[in-house]
């Protein structure tokens, strides 16, 4: 494992990632329900239509954010317990333990996340 995560850390991360995935699935279901309700309402005037378009845009943005985070969360769950978990997807170096504990779905190290280059940028791999 490229990080110094203990077995307990990994167990805690697995629980957190599963809970996060479950919460995101529930959020997506709620957005779908809200979208259905929104489109079921009839438009009485141009103001209603404008409000509906604004609300639909917000719901679509919320859904896209949740789908993206769910995909990253599921990918982290798939990597967890393998040598790939804790390795930066950009430079191949280790992702900092504190970063993984704070953001368990992180797939890049701090340096690559900031665009300053990680292990590859420092001449190591």
Automatic annotation (TrEMBL):
Pfam families: zf-dskA_traR (PF01258). Residues 7-76 form a coiled coil. It comes from the Bacteria. A zinc finger (dksA C4-type) spans 88-112. Keywords: Coiled coil, Metal-binding, Zinc, Zinc-finger. InterPro entries: Znf_DskA_TraR (IPR000962). The keyword NADP does not apply. Residues 85-114 form the Zinc finger DksA/TraR C4-type domain. This is TraR/DksA C4-type zinc finger protein. It comes from Streptomyces griseoaurantiacus.
């Amino acid at each position: 494992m490229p990080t110094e995560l203990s077995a307990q850390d990994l167990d805690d991360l697995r629980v957190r990632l599963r809970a996060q995935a479950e919460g995101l699935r529930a959020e997506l279901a709620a957005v779908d329900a809200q979208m259905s309700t929104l489109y079921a309402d009839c438009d009485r005037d141009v103001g209603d239509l404008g409000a509906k378009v604004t609300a639909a845009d917000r719901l679509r943005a919320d859904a896209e954010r949740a789908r993206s985070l769910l995909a990253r969360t599921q990918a982290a769950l798939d990597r967890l317990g393998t040598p790939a978990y804790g390795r930066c997807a950009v430079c191949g170096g280790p992702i900092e333990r504190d970063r993984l504990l704070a953001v368990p779905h992180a797939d890049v190290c701090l340096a690559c996340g900031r665009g300053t280059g990680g292990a590859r940028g420092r001449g190591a791999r």
